[in-house]
Please model this.
Amino acid sequence: MQPTEPTSSPTARAALLLLADGRFPAGGHAHSGGAEAAVADGRVRDAATLADFCRGRLHTTGLVAAALAAAATAGLDPLLLDEAADARTPSPALRAVSRRLGRQLLRAARAAWPAPALDRLATARPRGAHHPVVLGLTARAAGLAPLDAAHAAAYESASGPATAAVRLLSLDPFHSAAVLARLAPEIDAVATRAADAAARALTDGASALPAASAPLLDIAAEHHATWPVRLFAS
Model:
């Protein structure tokens, strides 16, 4: 199966829905994807500015996460990918968050889709591997294709802030859902680009993966980590 082909298995499609479901017990509900800091700074005020924020996150950190996840699903060494994720995450606060979310996702994944590769990663990274790498290995264990993993990661990069904004701004949930619906074509495009990069990485190595940056997200994450009172962990 080529990395850019979606899976044709009905069981795997159900697994993809489960993996992308915000109710899957992987800890994502406790994180805003930078939206809390953006709301405090006045950069996210309403549905329109939320859409801008989600779009920016999707095309930067979302693209990187989707490519890492797709590469892990495609069979690249997860430990090398974990190092690549470290290199692409300049903020110490965001590196810690990614590993914490990875550890939580790994616990849920080993219960849902037991696999030796997940056990080996848990042993090699007891304090947690980066979330996109765990997501990719989980997708592989669930019978998904690299493009499926890329879709899950790309969608999560936008859905996290969109969902958090409902609580942070008392935003109408219909407006939050509309933001995601209008971003759907871009989510598809980012996932395809990420899966294509993962396919190249099979021969060219992890250096072929995107390294898009979002400096304002990094700076805001460092500030957010110092807040004595906050609604979300990140």
In short: The chain has one domain: 50-219. Confidence is low (pLDDT under 50) at residues 1-8.
